[in-house]
Amino acid sequence: MWRWISGLILIAVGLGILFDVNMLRFLIPVLLIWAGWNIISKEKSPQTSGENHTVSVDTLNESVVLSGEKKVALSHSFKGGKVVAVLGGADIDLTRAKMKEKTVTLELTAILCGVHVRVPKEWAVEVSGVTKVFGGFDKRVQPIEKPEHTLLVTGEVVFGGVDISS
Prior knowledge:
By secondary structure, the chain is α/β, with parallel strands linked by helices. The protein has helices at about 1-20, 25-40; strands at about 55, 60-65, 70-75, 80-85, 90-95, 105-110, 115-120, 125, 130-140, 150-165.
């Protein structure tokens, strides 16, 4: 879904420039309405900005819009998941999580923001994410010769970055 949204935004901006139409006049209100709807339609527990929030779910499913979020995963059977951040940031700490499977996938999407993920030193990390416009994936983990567990990081970055460290 995020691929479609980011693609449509870029197409709209390109058409606006091509036909000399001020697309920001239409695009910004639409983005604000969409972000507001996402905020009020999510049922989340009250959170205080800047605090770590521990989760013991096996699969992450996080959306961050116009804010920041810090999560510490305590799962003993981590299965990956999806984190989407738009105009905000996400800090995901997996250093206390355990994997039962050999490889799990974590899909990360960062649009106009950053996502930072910390992994245990025992995990190997493979990145196959795509940078759409101005951004990138940065992997700062030590290579492991024969890893028992591998975290496969996929996803997209538009005007942002994803940082993976151990």
